[in-house]
Amino acid sequence: MPVPLPEQPLPNRTPSTSDATDILFKLLLGALVVAVPLGSLAWLGGNCAAVLTRSGRWAPYRPADALLHPDLLWPATGHTALLVGRFIAPGILLATAAVLAARWWTRRSASGGQKKPVKGMAKANDIEPLLAKAITAKAKSLRPSLKHASKVAPNDTGILLGNLAGTRHEVRMGYEDVAVAIMAPRSGKTTSLAIPAILSAPGPVLLTSNKAAGDAFTATLAARARVGRTWTMDPQQIAHALRVMWWDPLADATTLEGANRLAGHFLAASVDASQQGDFWSKAAQNVLAQLFLAAANDRRPITDVMRWLAFPADRTPLDTLRDHGFHAVASQLKGTVEGPPETRDGIYETARQYAACLLNAEIAAWVTPQTDVPQFKPSEFVTSRDTLYLLSKDGGGGASAVIAACADSVMRTATAEAERAGGRLDPPLIAILDEAANVCKIQDLPDLYSHLGSRGIIPLTILQSYRQGQKVWGDAGMDAMWSAATIKIIGSGIDDPDFADKLSRLIGDHDVETTSTSISDSGKSTSVSMRQQRILPADAIRALAKGSALLFATGLRAAMLTLRPWYLEPGADDLSAASARASRAITARAINKTLTQDDFDQAA
């Protein structure tokens, strides 16, 4: 048998020698990667300089000489021309390319990296009614001012929602759609929906918000001031805005229906939907409505209602109601006042709590007649290109009631104006109800959704969750709003498993091909079958990337959108500068107010 040879030892290679060799190789490779493109650019730039200055011919490709010995290639070309051609011009080109690449990457990152559409969701032909051609034709049919226009600007056709994921197709909601957006904080609801809608609005704009600095208020204030007047109602000093307007909430309360609506705003701002049907709440709302009706018809300020609430025995509202022909209402109020003292006191105390904000002189000043500032009139606003900012804090109680009442008055006035104008406002009114469940609790907003769009009044109600809407309007009310909304937008941050599963079922299933292989005595066989699978399961909806959103449009397949934040659009630098100035002005007003208060305290 052959004797096995002993194993030969491998050459001795120490780790340090191997690492040094790898480093040298990488350095050499890196030098080549850098030097070859630079040499090529220097050669190209030098040739361009020689040809343009007519001092030489096109030199052969020698990138090393172009970098180190340009006099060998272009002996008659001046030093300055070669410096510009070989280094300065290529440097500018490289810097420009780097900036463009950085912007592309920033845009891609801001859109959540969503480039490819999800398999099974809508393609461009599935949502054609929301794309440029169809939405433009629809706008011409809806708006008489555009009927004979040869070219229509995109902003005149509808509100931009984003791009269809993976494409450049802009998706817009038309000016007869009504929308609900459910998006968690910092998911793009303000930067990608509210602000772009305000900036592009062709007519009047209404915005409700609970923030000012760094939000839609500061981002749009200067831009909207260039197209019309800006009105700011800031009773709780969110933006520390100077009071340069006042609004009369009793202007629409001269009828029993209007007075009931006004009282309903104070009720909704104070209690949730589940508590609005009990005896004390309904009785307090009725008393408030009766007192509002009396004050409105006697042309009194709304603050007189608080005096009447403090003294139920005051017969002034009873006499006023009778004098203006509201005998049945006066009888109802008289029955409450002369009823059992325990019941009367409970009703009046509940009403006083609902309207407590009117005791605050700073809040009341915004809704009582003033001689030194102009009055905001909804009838003039709805036919203008003005902007109304309604600001209130979360849980603002009665202050949010004033905000909701003003927003409701504007939309109701717009409805009446649309009827006088032939059925539809042109240009339309855009109502951005941001944080609607906190600062704009309009009781019958779900019912209004069924007809606002057909009047050229386009509401966009923005909520943080579906349950937030249920808390304000109840299960039936929120379901009614969801069903009536022709556009539904779902952003990232949906953590409600039931709602996520509901959305998943609405998106639907698609066929997935499954291949199986079996081995038997007769051999190997392969079979292909189809099975149904959720297009987007609930966990994928919960993990939806920031910058992406789901779109549910009536009668169309669900689509994935890539949002378009305002700060990535043309003109963003100017808007950012204006927003920064507005934010600094808010800070300055807050500091000045603090200093003034300190001086007052010291003097006292």
Automatic annotation (TrEMBL):
Q: Where is the TraD/TraG TraM recognition site domain?
A: 428-545
- KW Cell wall biogenesis/degradation (keyword) present: no
Organism listed in the record: Streptomyces phyllanthi
In terms of SUPFAM superfamilies, this protein maps to: P-loop containing nucleoside triphosphate hydrolases
Q: Where in the cell is it found?
A: Cell membrane
Please give the name of this protein.
Answer: TraD/TraG TraM recognition site domain-containing protein
What InterPro entries does the entry give?
P-loop_NTPase, T4SS-coupling_protein, TraG-D_C
How is the protein disposed in the membrane?
A: Multi-pass membrane protein
Give UniProt keywords alphabetically: Cell membrane, Membrane, Transmembrane, Transmembrane helix
Q: Indicate the transmembrane segments per the record.
A: 23-44, 87-106
Q: Name one Pfam family in it.
A: TraG-D_C
Might you report a single GO cellular component term?
plasma membrane
